[in-house]
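URGENT: need a sanity check before tomorrow's submission.

F., can you look over the Orotidine 5'-phosphate decarboxylase record below? I want to be sure the sequence and structure line up before it goes out.
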Amino acid sequence: MHFFDRLADRIAAADSVVSVGLDPDPARLPDSVRDADLPRWQFNRRIIDATHEHAACYKPNAAFYEDPDGWRSLQETIAYAHGKDVPVLLDAKRGDIGNTARQYAQILDDDEGPAADAITVNPFLGRDSLEPFLQRADKGVFVLGRTSNPGGEDLQDLELASGEKLYERVVHLADLWNGNGNVGLVVGATNPDELEEIRELVPDIPFLVPGVGAQGGDAEAAVEHGLADGVGLVNSSRGIIFAGEDADTRRDDSGDAFFKAAGQSAKQLKERLNQFR
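Structure tokens as predicted:
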């Protein structure tokens, strides 16, 4: 089954388009898991327990796992999420040439343990740098299209000789690269007008819309323009996983209050987004 078919099934089962970002910053972990074996994994396990009923997908960011214990934590996290029937999108923003790209794409291979169901990629080096990902027809490939960070406009707003802006060309290319029906786009939620414009350019490609939550993105626009035939994801990371981060909950030895707050935040976001579906 292709990734977007599995995602559609999960969205229906959970009645949710919420992507929960799993970014376990070691400096922000609560005391209840800080001294555990593989604290990032223990943190993620409890976040998943608290949020899985409301999650369409989990999105771990590779930057928080790039050390030996981190990779072990990531594998455990993927396996545990799969055990809850929730797909995993690895936010790695990969993109390189030749043999390096092929090596990066192996992180999607299921024959060496639990593997992510989808990945984010950087299109700056062109199609050949993404081909090893695109040819995995059962895996989702989310191409960076229009990002919500302030510096994104430094390059993405540049006007080409064709009259297009650079991000508009990337969006068109992503559509051309979608021969296997496994391409999505990453489009930030902080500019509703651009979300609408990009949806008009590519009516059928699902979006991953970050920036709803701590970055203050527009929830209504994220749903209205982010979904293609009901399929797409709206992500919140810090706004969910650190929702219980205050002095009282951090001093709770069991961590129950901390993780309960994450579950409540995921539920609230699901209900907020569902108003516009």
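My own read: The chain has one domain: 3-274. The chain is about 45% helix and 15% strand. If you see anything odd, call me.
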